[in-house]
From TrEMBL:
<keyword id="KW-0863">Zinc-finger</keyword>
<feature type="compositionally biased region" description="Low complexity">
    <location>
        <begin position="185"/>
        <end position="196"/>
    </location>
</feature>
<dbReference type="GO" id="GO:0035242">
    <property type="term" value="F:protein-arginine omega-N asymmetric methyltransferase activity"/>
</dbReference>
<protein>
    <recommendedName>
        <fullName>type I protein arginine methyltransferase</fullName>
        <ecNumber>2.1.1.319</ecNumber>
    </recommendedName>
</protein>
<keyword id="KW-0963">Cytoplasm</keyword>
<dbReference type="InterPro" id="IPR049482">
    <property type="entry name" value="ANM3-like_C2H2_Zf"/>
</dbReference>
<feature type="region of interest" description="Disordered">
    <location>
        <begin position="183"/>
        <end position="206"/>
    </location>
</feature>
<dbReference type="InterPro" id="IPR025799">
    <property type="entry name" value="Arg_MeTrfase"/>
</dbReference>
<keyword id="KW-0949">S-adenosyl-L-methionine</keyword>
<dbReference type="Pfam" id="PF06325">
    <property type="entry name" value="PrmA"/>
</dbReference>
<feature type="compositionally biased region" description="Acidic residues">
    <location>
        <begin position="23"/>
        <end position="32"/>
    </location>
</feature>
<dbReference type="InterPro" id="IPR055135">
    <property type="entry name" value="PRMT_dom"/>
</dbReference>
<dbReference type="InterPro" id="IPR029063">
    <property type="entry name" value="SAM-dependent_MTases_sf"/>
</dbReference>
<dbReference type="GO" id="GO:0005829">
    <property type="term" value="C:cytosol"/>
</dbReference>
<feature type="domain" description="Protein arginine N-methyltransferase">
    <location>
        <begin position="360"/>
        <end position="453"/>
    </location>
</feature>
<feature type="domain" description="Protein arginine N-methyltransferase 3-like C2H2 zinc finger">
    <location>
        <begin position="76"/>
        <end position="122"/>
    </location>
</feature>
<dbReference type="GO" id="GO:0008270">
    <property type="term" value="F:zinc ion binding"/>
</dbReference>
Length: 585
């Protein structure tokens, strides 16, 4: 779904937007609402206009917006029958996406942001406009005719109601934005973190699906994935020799087997699905039950013997679009429960990459084909398809821009709270003729480092091509064991390392799920645009990328892309902001 807004200020230039960056600093911004100004002071503090940088008291600003922009927030709220939360969402929505007053008048009250808790979060810190009761400020027509005492009583009642409404609002916001923290400190995991609400079960179906054979076959046969883990584990004795290792979500136990082969002295292989039974058999069949202990259970719930702490956590937790499945939340709980202070997370870093894409083939296959079925118009079948992210493989020729990082996750420090995020993006069209952008494409890159530290920003991910030696060297052909020689790596400085240097140098092992690499089972995630747009060389597409766990299932994701297309010669002219919303489910 997409909505158009015509901004009065180009969105990219907004530095006041607390949600507009994915930097850790912004994300760690205090969500402590105790410093909210008291209600009685609201009239006197500085309030910012909804449409420009003018500041003044709430009353002055409301009057200013009315005179300058012919916009009355109270009128709009009344017209749309908004309650206090609807009003707050609307104010935050205006502040964040900067629609023109004319476009606001097109709202019906049914837009999805009116039910999104994201827009309960203040865009401007201590925004006084969020905290006032409209009745206090509007000019009631028959005010003069009401006796003063009745009017005071009525105002007192309104004030009390406002205070109750805001108390509720603060609770919602505090609750919503501290869920991550609760989940971190809870042993019950993200789906069960709200004790006052009936527990929703986002786990049973999830773990059942991992009990099946096929899903593990698909993962093991994903050569890019499995061979990169193998290269890292088997190729870095400095990390694994004599180490105590925790394999979070061991599945068949493949990563634990690699770790044992790499010289780990103890491996705890944990899985909450039925596959754990198979892992146990596999470990025994390979005579490694003296090293690997399979533990069946959620990593949030299990205990390791006598308070063991581990040197390394290995886990293959990545889902579609990286964060689908929300398994990373569990890995972070495992990190905080079991990893030694200087322990290593493998992988150590993942990056979400966004780009412009010509997905016209996929649009044809999945959407346009409904237009003519044996001569019948069945386009009704395609109506909702634009709201669902498509998981499919596209070729590298479909990329119409260099990708831009929308989330860089450092596994050693990221918190669950940071997994719901908003970040800015800026994509520059790299086309040699006018081309239609039919989708945003999202994929992720994964990095392993021997120190567990993040890679240097300029480090490029290794692109693995068909028949490349890195795959052959760990992938036994015809059932023969892999050749026993040192694995090749991509080195940080791009140099090949000889002899003694290996142990000292930081070695980076990586793989990409992008269209340049051999396709992986994660494929790519495509956000098809209901309203494709044309770009020429150098056009800039910029905006905000929002990603959060879905309210209805914490393992699914809601994504919004707010974007503006800017012609090369027209950098200063303000353009429409388009909001496109998607579900990854
Ligand atoms: N490591 C295996 C399997 C990866 S799939 C491999 O690389 O092939 C992810 C596995 O993690 C699944 O088997 C799933 O059941 C398990 N898993 C997911 N969340 C978990 C949790 N919180 N606790 C334990 N196991 C979990």
């Amino acid at each position: 779904m997409s909505i158009h807004f015509h901004p009065t200020i180009p969105i990219i230039e907004d530095n006041h937007d607390a949600n507009s960056s994915s930097s850790d600093e912004d994300e760690d911004e205090s969500e402590n609402w105790d410093d909210w100004i008291s209600d009685s002071a609201i009239q006197h503090v500085n309030c910012r206009s909804l449409f420009d940088d003018k500041v003044g008291s709430v009353e002055d600003i409301l009057a200013y917006d009315k005179v300058t922009y012919n916009f009355d927030i109270n009128e709009v709220c009344t017209k749309l029958s908004l309650d206090v939360h609807g009003r707050i969402r609307l104010i935050n929505f205006i502040r964040q996406t900067k629609p023109s007053p004319a476009n606001i008048s097109l709202l019906t009250g049914k837009e999805s942001f009116f039910s999104s808790d994201d827009f309960l979060r203040p865009v401007l810190e201590d925004d006084p406009l969020l905290q006032y009761e409209p009745g206090d400020w509007t000019d009631s027509e028959d005010e003069g005719s009401i006796p003063t005492e009745r009017r005071i009583r009525s105002l007192e009642q309104k004030l009390a109601q406002t205070q109750r409404d805001f108390e509720e609002y603060r609770k919602i916001v505090n609750h919503h934005f501290s869920l991550g923290q609760i989940a971190e400190s809870s042993s019950e995991g993200p789906s069960n973190s709200v004790s006052s609400q009936p527990k929703r079960d986002d786990d049973s179906h999830y773990f059942e699906s991992y009990g099946a054979n096929d899903i593990h076959a698909v993962m093991i046969q994903d050569k890019v994935r499995t061979s990169t883990y193998a290269r890292f584990i088997l190729g870095t004795p400095s990390v694994f020799e004599d180490a105590i290792v925790l394999d979070v979500g061991c599945g068949t136990g493949i990563l634990s087997l690699f770790a044992a082969r790499a010289g780990a002295k103890k491996v705890f292989a944990v899985d909450a699905s039925n596959i754990a039974t198979k892992a146990e058999k596999i470990v025994k069949a390979n005579n490694l039950d003296n090293v690997i202990t399979v533990i069946r259970g959620k990593v949030e719930d299990i205990q390791l013997p006598e308070g063991t702490k581990v040197d390394v956590i290995i886990s293959e937790w990545m889902g579609y679009a990286l964060l689908y499945e929300s398994m990373l939340d569990s890995v972070l709980v495992a990190r905080d429960r079991f990893l030694k202070p200087n322990g290593i997370m493998a992988p150590s870093q993942t990056r979400m990459m966004l780009g412009l894409c010509d997905a016209s083939e996929i649009v044809k296959e999945r959407i346009l084909f409904w237009n003519d079925i044996y001569g019948y118009d069945m386009s009704a079948m395609a109506e909702e398809l634009y709201q669902e992210a498509v998981i499919d493989v596209v070729g590298s020729h479909t990329m119409l821009s260099a990708p831009c990082i929308v989330k860089d996750l450092y596994l050693s420090s990221v918190t669950t709270r940071q997994l719901d995020f908003t970040s800015q993006f800026r994509l520059i069209a790299s086309v040699d003729r006018r081309t239609k952008v039919t989708a945003f494409i999202l994929y992720f890159d994964t990095f392993f480092t021997t120190s567990g530290n993040p890679v240097a920003p300029e480090t490029e991910v290794q692109i693995i091509h068909e028949n490349e030696a890195v795959i052959a060297e760990v992938w036994p052909l015809g059932g023969r064991p892999a050749p026993q020689r040192r694995m090749s790596h991509q080195h940080k400085k791009g140099k090949s390392l000889e002899g003694g240097e290996v142990a000292k140098a930081e070695v980076v092992t990586s793989f990409s799920t992008g269209p340049k690499s051999i396709p992986t089972h994660w494929k790519q995630t495509l956000f098809l645009l209901k309203e494709p747009f044309i770009v020429d060389e150098g056009f800039v597409v910029h905006g905000h990328f929002h990603c959060r766990k879905s309210d209805s299932n914490s393992r699914e994701l809601d994504v919004e892309v707010h974007y503006t297309v800017q012609d090369v010669g027209n950098q200063n002219e303000s353009q429409d902001v388009v909001v496109a919303m998607f579900k990854i489910q």
